[in-house]
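Researcher: We're teaching a course module on how sequence relates to structure. For the next exercise, students receive a sequence and then see the predicted structure as C-alpha cells, so they can try to spot secondary structure elements on their own. Here is the exercise chain.
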Amino acid sequence: MTSTRFNVGIIGYGLSAKIFHIPFVTHVPELALYAIVQRTPGPDNDAEQDHPGVKVYRSVDDLVTDEKLDVVIVTAAPDQHFSLAKQALEAGKHGERCLFGRIDRRRKHAELKIVPQLSLRSRSPRPARRRMN
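Model: And here is the predicted structure for the students to work with:
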C-alpha cells in the first residue's frame, strides 16, 4: 500500500490556526504542514519563527500558485472564507471549510460548480437533530 502525504497550506495565522488546525495537521501522518499565509507578522506572532522549515507567504496569491501545495485550510475571518476558498479551489487546490457559512454563499459555490474534494472536519453548519422517544 502506498502512502500519500498531502501538503497543506493554512490561510491565516490567528488563534484557530495555532490552537486547532496546525496541531491537527502536524499529528496526522497523511498531512504535512507545508505553508502558512501570514500577512503581517509581529514580534510575538511570527509563523516563520514558530514553524522553521515551513514556507511562509504574505499573500494568498503566492500560496495558491505553489505547485507543491495540495490542500488549503482557511482560518481567516469568516467574511473572507468564501472568496479565499473560491480562489484556492479555482487554482486546483483541495479545500477545507469551503461550504460552511450562509446559504447565499453555498448557492454561489453551486453556481460556480465548485465542490470541495476533501474535508478535514465532520462538522455541519447546524447541529444534527435527534428524535426523542
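Model: If you want an answer key for the exercise: Residues 114-133 have pLDDT under 50 and may be disordered. The domain at 6-112 is CATH 3.40.50.720 (Rossmann fold).
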